[in-house]
Design goal:
The protein is mainly alpha-helical and about 80 residues long. It has a single domain, classed as ACP-like (Non-ribosomal Peptide Synthetase Peptidyl Carrier Protein, Chain A, Orthogonal Bundle), CATH 1.10.1200. The chain contains four helices and no strands. It has helices at about 5-20, 45-55, 65, 70-85. The chain starts with 5 loop residues before the first helix and ends with a helix.
Length: about 80
C-alpha cells in the first residue's frame, strides 16, 4: 500500500472517529484535539479507533505506543511511524 500523506491520514482518521465514537460525531477535530481521555474517548473507544486505523491503513501500531497517544496528532504520528517500520 502506498504511504498516504499526513493530511490523508488525518482526514481518514477523523472520519473513523466520527463513525465509531458517537459522542464525537459532531466534534471538530484537529491534530491538537485531545482524544484519549474520559472526556473525549474512553479506553474501549480508543482501542476500537486504533484497531480501525490499523485495519484501514494496513499497519500495526505497537501496543506499547498506545498509552502515548493523547491527541489526534499523536495518533497520526503513530500511523506515520508504523509506515517507517
Amino acid at each position: 500500500m502506498e504511504r498516504p500523506t499526513r493530511e490523508e491520514i488525518l482526514t481518514r482518521t477523523v472520519k473513523l472517529i466520527h463513525d465509531f465514537v458517537p459522542e464525537l460525531q459532531d466534534a471538530e477535530l484537529t491534530e491538537e484535539s485531545t482524544i484519549n481521555t474520559d472526556a473525549a474517548m474512553d479506553s474501549m473507544s480508543m482501542i476500537l479507533v486504533i484497531t480501525k486505523v490499523e485495519s484501514t491503513f494496513d499497519i500495526s501500531i505497537p501496543s506499547s505506543d498506545w498509552d502515548k497517544i493523547n491527541t489526534l496528532g499523536d495518533l497520526i504520528d503513530a500511523v506515520e511511524r508504523a509506515y517507517e517500520n
